[in-house]
Amino acid sequence: MSTIFSQIVEGEIPARVVYEDETTIAFLDANPLAPGHTLVIPKDEYERLNDVPDDVAEDLYATVHRLVPAVEESVDADASTVAFNNGEEAGQEVPHVHCHIVPRFESDGAGPIHAMFGGQEDIDDDRLDEIADEIESRA
Fold first, then answer.
1. How many domains, in total, are found in the chain?
2. Is residue 98 annotated as a catalytic residue, yes or no?
3. Buried-most residue among 9, 20, 28, 30 (CB within 10 A)?
4. Which domain holds residue 12?
5. pTM, two decimal places
6. At 129, which CATH number?
7. Average pLDDT, stretch 61-85?
8. Separation in Å, CA 47 to CA 4, 15, 84
9. How confident is the model at residue 1, as a pLDDT?
10. Residue 119 scores a pLDDT above 90
């Protein structure tokens, strides 16, 4: 089944496209969190970042890297939050990998990404070492 983003890629749904190359496309979010809120996607459907092939991931990051300053400058933003919601439990609403570039302004009141969680986890050093070893062994 084709996602709404694939329908945008195919031209079946209109979008305000701001950049396009062979493997990626970027367009303004239809439900923006701020002026200039832009989504960057691979043209092919991949549900999660884990599914994106290395070469497409490189292209995707290159597009994000290219667009962050363009978005910020276009709306005179002080900064931006750049994020992926990777999986439904993380807030991913469309099962097609997409990166949010959300312009940020001094007065927006949104806070840092850490504010999403309401506080830090209290994890002891032994558990942190175990987690680090697990991640390293799988990387």
1. 1
2. yes
3. 9
4. 4-138
5. 0.93
6. 3.30.428.10
7. 98
8. 13, 20, 12
9. 60
10. no
